[in-house]
Amino acid sequence: SQTIHQWPATLVQPVGSPLSLECTVEGTSNPNLYWYRQAAGRGLQLLFYSVGIGQISSEVPQNLSASRPQDRQFILSSKKLLLSDSGFYLCACSGQGAQGYTFGSGTRLTVV
Amino acid sequence: GQSLEQPSEVTAVEGAIVQINCTYQTSGFYGLSWYQQHDGGAPTFLSYNGLDGLEETGRFSSFLSRSDSYGYLLLQELQMKDSASYFCAVRTGANNLFFGTGTRLTVIP
Asked: How far B102 CA sits from the closest chain A CA (Å)?
């Protein structure tokens, strides 16, 4: 079965600072990978997805970027954080033919 | 635009049955999924309906009617640990899983 490792669990960053969140996947090869953001008490908003190394699709315009340097590694970045970037960031993967996504444990980001 | 509507909160008694409804309006439809999320935790996959009808997995069942753009999650023999948020999600494309805003279920003794 697929396992997603995501870190850090919590992060407090000042406005204008850079961001790098990392996600790695075990138990599958060539997964589709996703970054979601969840605001407090809200649903999940898809930010980026990747179907392979170096292939990134953005779903919403924003202050963030994503990269996939290796098959099982997905990175979410920002050069300068905004207050509105605060939220719960979740990495997810779907294997071939899988109907359900597997989520990582998430990173709770607070921009101050 | 795309929208998924589900009740924001539901309260039910331990041992009872509860149904969480979801209606959707999306530009594409490849199936309806349900996820459970405990406070502070990550969503976990519960069920998937690609075709009309009922899917049963233990105490949980999920139903889909594509003609009505409607589905529901049925939880039987409720337990205290079932207190969580439940999200319906529609796969609108090969790589787009669109989530509702979630239903917070509170199970009371």
From this structure: 6
For residue B103 the two structure tokens come to 């239903």
Average pLDDT over chain A, rounded to an integer: 91
**CB distance B97–A101 less than 8 Å?**
yes
Burial class (CB in 10 A: 0-12, 13-18, 19+), B87: buried
Nearest by CB to B99, from A43, A51, A59: name it.
A43
Per-residue pLDDT for A19 more than 90?
Answer: yes
CB atoms near residue A70 (< 10 Å): 12
* Separation of alpha carbons B68 and B3, rounded Å: 14
Q: What is the pLDDT of residues A45-71, one digit of tens each?
A: 999 999 999 999 988 778 899 999 999
